[in-house]
Amino acid sequence: AAEQEKNAARTAKEIARIINAGYRVVITHGNGPQVGLLALQSAAGPAASRLPLDALDAASEGWIGSAIELELRNLLSKDTEIVTLLTHVLVDPEDPGFRNPTKPIGPIGDEATMRGMIKGHDWSIARDGAGWRRVVASPQPQSILEIAAIRRLAETGVIVICAGGGGIPVIATASGALQGIEAVLDKDATSSLLAAQTDAALFVMLTDVDGVYLDFGTPAARAVVSGGPAALEAHRNAYQSGSMGPKVASACRFVRATGRPAAIGALADFAAIITGDRGTLIALPERALVLRLPAPFRQAAKASPSQ
């Protein structure tokens, strides 16, 4: 909880700086570690008290959204209107994501530890970077049920925190009734839909790295400064499926759907990302990738201009 508050404060500081500069924002966030930890807590209790993932999605969305809202209230003028809105997202019950769990949640550990953690539960694990995590169903978001309310609030200057963790997944039954379903939605996919449906001028995804990279984690890593959607997607195998891959896909989806730009970069660079000075910009018209070489390669290029 202490780490969550610290991260919320750091996030709110950068967002408040943008708001004070005159920008209007709609805020969303992830919940992968938190919803996974809540699932472990729930599973550790009596069987009768265990909660489905959609209930834990709602709990984590409220928890994280509340933390961000309080920190923003501490930084902005007292008359600033801020709301945290629990958000339901319609999905298709026949989505193939239900048959192939891929969304990583909860803590990361070695394979033996993770297999021990899921013992006795009908859970799956998969590799996530250097470690292993639990993976759950993650269908594609179809529509955001509260989008009209979100738009009305945003258009009147209210700062809206919504669709956290990808939102709360629901399906429509044969009778048309809505009900929650066991899944965790991809935050980037829902965020792309949210940005398009709120007519965002710019869709920004803030993360732990300063942009998209090719050959990330190797001496030959090259930062992608800018490029068109097709150029970014041509290197889709270079992005990790559980981290940068969904961000690139969601950015490209937004750009194609709206004709407006998207950007990916570090939280601390938020202001510079908006002005186009940092991060990775994805925009139309289609263009080749502009890359920034790692320092050793730049030094070699200066020494041998012909190369």
Defining key terms:
single chain, 307 residues, alpha/beta, six-stranded mixed β-sheet, four-stranded mixed β-sheet, 16 strands, 38% helix, disordered C terminus
Layout of secondary structure:
Blueprint: H1 2-20, E1 26-27, H2 32-44, H3 53-75, E2 82-85, E3 88-90, E4 103-109, H4 111-118, E5 124-128, E6 131-136, E7 143-144, H5 147-155, E8 159-162, E9 168-172, E10 178-180, H6 187-197, E11 203-207, E12 212-214, E13 222-227, H7 229-233, H8 244-258, E14 262-266, H9 270-274, E15 280-282, E16 290-292, H10 295-303
Parallel strand pairs: 1-8, 2-8, 3-9, 11-14, 13-15
Antiparallel strand pairs: 3-7, 4-6, 5-6, 9-10, 12-13, 13-16, 14-15
Q: How many helices in DSSP terms?
A: 10
Return residue spans where pLDDT drops below 50 for at least 5 consecutive residues: 296-307
| Beta-strand share of residues | 15-25%
Give a quick account of the main beta sheet: strands, pairing sense, barrel closure. Answer: 6 strands, mixed
Mean pLDDT: 91
Distance between the termini: 52 Å
Which percent range fits the helix content?
Answer: 25-40%
Radius of gyration, CA atoms, in whole angstroms: 20 Å
The secondary structure category is alpha/beta
